[in-house]
Design goal:
The chain is mainly alpha-helical. It is about 75% helix and about 0% strand. It folds into two domains: about 200 residues, Growth Hormone, Chain: A (Up-down Bundle); about 210 residues, Growth Hormone, Chain: A (Up-down Bundle). A two-stranded antiparallel sheet has the order 1-2. α1 packs across α6, α13 runs antiparallel to α18 and α15 runs antiparallel to α18. The protein is globular and about 55 Å long.
């Protein structure tokens, strides 16, 4: 099988992984609270169970990322991580007690840590200019899972039978269903996923420059032979000399044919063995957490990851009580609303995927942050204390939710792509694990913050607005640094880290 087909199948399998992660969230979330009630769990157990999933993913992400950086492989890591998803969902199906259910989400959450390895793999196997497009496509897959997940509940809620000693009903069926899906995904990973070699940075550009240099060299030498003039040194760019070390001088004119042939071979087929072996053997040699993550641009992007996810999960927690209070919405109306939001998010990701080929990531990040600021101001004015009758309140609510959802794809894609460029590629798996852990912490704290202040919207929304204002100032002061470093700067950074 050719490498192009392997790459397509590998990326397709990655899309399936993120699709199932979205389906799992959408299938389990609607029924988990009533499931806990059948096991006589207190109210606070819902928060514990949901947070357990994020907590274990928060801890496992950097570990799996570190593992992939050490081995430069991801297939084994994905297969190993998926075992936790299979076992966790099987435990969820069994549901012996509330503590067993809590443990099931804790175990399943470990499997999400493989996402760090996958993002590291995507960083190493895609060109920087294509990275935003690839990341956007991956994120769309998860959103599609969130969108189609509720549809599976239509037939899962009809389950009412026994499987040996276990009861399959509306509460236990999601666990069994997801267990089967993750088993099928294991087979897909085994047969359709390959550890592709990393994409050599700037390879295509250097190849083109080499070919142009060779053509110019041949033309010059032919002209010099015809005119029988003195041969002048042929100077190449410092980048090519540093990489390939082949320069034709006047002294080498005596061996004209041999020198030209050797230069051509050296330019077209460089030998990367020493650097590859050095990177694969010790990617964390002289690595420093402070030098890698306390740089200005990295701090800004991690802050963007935390603040946007904190605000997003806080608003998600607030929406359901708000619709019940002001519009008397039930499960059907809320499901329809989430479905429409899913369509908007997918459309947004597709638009950002198109836009990322035309403008820089920092511009996309600034646009998304501006939209989120407008949304938060709108919610603070109109949703904290809705004005008017039912039509006006509904209009205010729809505009606020629309703006909030609209800004998410811009920030999500831009900050992930930029983060992959401003951090070292050698330790990309670990770095992506740290980024996802910061996001996991936000998804734990966001619902806790909103859940305790549902009746005091001004305080809740005011803090969210303050966080966005802080992020906006950080972005403004660090805007010039939010670019991909040059190869010289990256080489110096690699020597330090």
């Amino acid at each position: 099988m050719d490498n192009g087909r392997k790459k397509k199948l590998t990326f397709f399998t990655i899309g399936l992984i993120f699709l199932l992660s979205g389906v799992e969230y959408a299938v389990i979330l609607p029924t988990i609270w009533r499931y806990l009630q059948t096991l006589e769990a207190p109210t606070y157990f819902l928060g514990l169970t949901l947070s357990a999933f994020s907590l274990s993913g928060l801890l496992s992400g950097p570990l799996f990322g570190h593992w992939s950086d050490r081995t430069r492989t991801t297939k084994k890591i994905i297969l190993f991580a998926n075992l936790f998803e299979i076992v966790g969902n099987l435990m969820y199906f069994m549901g012996f007690s509330k503590w067993f259910l809590l443990s099931s989400r804790l175990v399943a959450g470990i499997g999400t840590g493989a996402g760090s390895s996958i993002f590291g793999f995507l960083t190493r196997s895609t060109a920087p200019e294509d990275r935003s497009t690839v990341f956007a496509a991956v994120m769309v897959c998860r959103q599609v899972g969130l969108l189609i997940g509720p549809a599976f509940n239509i037939f899962l809620r009809l389950c009412d039978f026994h499987l040996g000693p276990f009861v399959v009903n509306i509460y236990t069926a999601p666990g069994l269903f997801m267990c089967l899906l993750w088993i099928l995904l294991q087979l897909a990973v085994v047969f359709m996923y390959w550890d592709l070699p990393p994409l050599e940075r700037g390879k295509d550009t250097l190849k083109k420059r080499s070919e142009m240099g060779n053509e110019q060299s041949i033309e010059k030498e032919e002209a010099e032979d015809e005119d029988d003039e003195e041969v002048k040194p042929l100077m190449r760019s410092q980048e090519l000399v540093g990489s390939y070390g082949s320069v034709v001088t006047a002294d080498s004119h005596k061996n004209h044919t041999t020198a030209t042939s050797d230069a051509t071979l050296n330019q077209v087929a460089p030998s990367p063995e020493p650097s590859v072996s050095r990177e694969s053997s010790s990617p964390f040699k002289n690595f420093s957490l402070s030098r890698e993550f306390l740089r200005e641009e990295v701090v800004v992007l991690l802050a963007a990851q935390f603040i946007t996810l904190f605000n997003q999960t806080a608003l998600e927690t607030m929406v359901t009580p708000l619709t019940q209070k002001y519009f008397n919405y039930g499960e059907l109306e809320n499901s329809l609303m989430y479905c429409l939001c899913g369509v908007e998010v997918i459309t947004g990701f597709l638009f950002v995927r198109w836009l990322s080929r035309r403008v820089a990531e920092r511009v996309i990040l600034a646009v998304g942050l501006s939209i989120c600021n407008i949304s938060c101001v709108w919610c603070l004015i109109f949703l904290a204390n809705p004005l008017g009758g039912f039509p006006w309140r509904l209009t205010e609510f729809v505009i606020g939710v629309f703006l909030q959802v609209l800004g998410l794809p811009f920030i999500a894609v831009a900050q992930v792509s930029l983060f992959s460029k401003v951090t070292s590629e050698k330790t990309q798996g670990f770095s992506q694990g740290v980024r996802r852990s910061v996001g996991g912490l936000a998804t734990i704290l966001g619902p806790l913050w909103a859940g305790g202040l549902t009746d005091n919207m001004y305080i809740m929304m005011g803090v969210m607005m303050a966080l966005l204002a802080l992020l906006t100032m950080m972005l403004a002061f660090s805007y010039k640094r939010l670019v991909e470093p040059s190869q010289e700067e990256e080489a110096e950074s690699g020597d330090l880290c």
